[in-house]
Amino acid sequence: MKNILITGGAGFIGSHLVKRFVKNYPNYNIYNVDSLTYAGDLNNLKEIENKKNYNFFRIDINNHDEIINLFKSKDISDVIHLAAESHVDKSIESSYEFAKTNVLGTLSLLEACRKVWIEPYQNNIFYHISTDEVYGSLGLDGSFNEKSKYDPNSPYSASKASSDHFVRSYYKTHKLPILISNCSNNYGPFQHKEKLIPNILNSLINREKIPIYGDGKNIRDWLFVDDHCDAIELIFKEGLVGQTYNIGGDFEISNIDLAHLIIKIFDQIKSNPAGFSEKLLEFVDDRAGHDFRYAIDHNKITKELGWRPKTNFNDGINETINWYLKKL
Ligand SMILES: NC(=O)c1ccc[n+]([C@@H]2O[C@H](COP(=O)([O-])OP(=O)(O)OC[C@H]3O[C@@H](n4cnc5c(N)ncnc54)[C@H](O)[C@@H]3O)[C@@H](O)[C@H]2O)c1
Q1: Which ligand 1 atom is at minimum distance from the Cα of 191?
Q2: Pairing of β 219-224 and β 252-254
Q3: 5-23: per-residue pLDDT in tens?
Q4: Count of domains forming the chain
Q5: Which CATH number fits the domain that encloses residue 134?
Q6: Which pTM value belongs to this model?
Q7: What is the CA(144)–ligand 1 centre distance, in A?
Q8: Per the domain annotation, does 288 fall within a domain?
């Protein structure tokens, strides 16, 4: 029997994970804690909202007293921590909010574990979900592995890097049983439209300009959200305490090529003439501090736990486009 707290469960990745855990573990109680910022939406969870093992609490993770109460009253045994301010653009103007949620909010949860769980913490896990952006930016060659130097460039990645360090420090200092994973860019249904792929789709559906930063040559590695959740579930069950795992999609593409690809598939689905929506593309001023390239070496999780990305990008993006076409 476990009482698992998933933070940020009304967001993009969190809602996929909560639904998966509620369905896969009917004997575990799943507690979704989310403060419902603009990025959280309970509609993402409609299909499980009445399940017996699902519970939602609207709590800001920085509200330490409420977090402690929840830990005690629900006998929380494990935490999978996804709640965060997650949009790089917003972090440039609202860095303080990012430090508050991503750094202090993580600390509030770590402190709750330390205060409420009983040493030697044999039946507990604090699993922190993080990003590959903590490693900074790559040139055209190479990839990030778990030993890569932390070198964050945006206030978002700086706040996530800081939270990773705090989590690790609680393992070293307090022997708290932690896990960390750093993942590349996710895509799929239920992502907020501020993010690149939903933003392109939103513009296509509404026949608005599709803004592309700079020259569009920045490269990202894309992973379908279900594959990320496969990895999270596996790490949660089988990961070695104290370890970090890098998770990547093996699918690198420049932003402009990604936009061309999505436009092509969209026009096919809508039976538009080839190239019909290309005219919507518009290059705009580059994002300040825009990282050039991220790429992930996921050998460790592949060798040790047997995970690899399994969704072909074409299949994943078709599913995503069709979902947004129904939703938007
Ligand atoms: N989306 C990606 O491509 C990606 C890649 C790697 C890692 N991550 C990490 O995964 C996690 C989830 O990312 P996402 O894309 O689903 O984010 P998201 O922005 O879609 O969701 C974040 C959720 O956290 C909630 N939240 C924000 N501040 C809170 C607070 N103070 N207290 C309680 N809840 C709060 C929001 O309401 C929202 O539901 C984040 O930690 C992010 O850094 C995301």
Answers
A1: 20
A2: antiparallel
A3: 999 999 999 999 999 999 9
A4: 1
A5: 3.40.50.720
A6: 0.98
A7: 22
A8: no
